[in-house]
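pasting for ref
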Amino acid sequence: MKDDLSRPPFTPLLAVEGLWVSYDRIDAVRGVSFDVGVGEIVTLIGANGAGKSSILQAISGMLPVARGRVTLAGLDLLGVPAHLRVARGIAHVPEGRGIFGNLTVLENLRLATYRRRDGEIERDLEEVFALFPRLAERRRQWGNTLSGGEQQMLAVGRALMSRARLLLLDEPSMGLAPLLVREIFRVIQRINQQGAAILLVEQNAHLALEVAHRAYILETGEIALSGPASELRHHPQVLAAYLGGA
């Protein structure tokens, strides 16, 4: 579990200011502002339709922004195409994983390195295989033959191969058995300990608040609550709405 003592000294990395995202004249996200520091795990929690995935898609360039500002390390991202945001250090693991089923595990991982010109790709591959030994065993296997848990591992591993400074993780536990959920979250913590900042959208509020440094609670496209995750775990509103009153 994270606590205030484990939170790294705050150095801004991602800043979202007054973000509005709309679908067909319907405002899915309304004036949202938050930040993620270097080395932090920040989680967005809310009911279905609260705007969580829309925020991640706006940050990664998959959805247009109606109003607001998004910066990474002080550099404006609005107007920057999605593929160039990857080059700036953002990797998005979408809900549904988005792997290429007609490519092998190894080909999926190598695909994330298409912009890299360094000599450490092989080393990074071995690090991904060390994090996910099952991917090492299945490196020649087609993506569409993997189990749901293995596909999730592949999606996270592919994001790591881009050497992202910021990982956007959208519902990494969805559809997974409890043991695999715990495994995925252990890996998320290890990735964070190795230096990557993480913006996490997760249906399992218990686990999200357990691993995060800070949290924002979204309701109908707006931030209703925010603060240290260790405090929000005990907030009456959060307990009633997302933690089953426990």
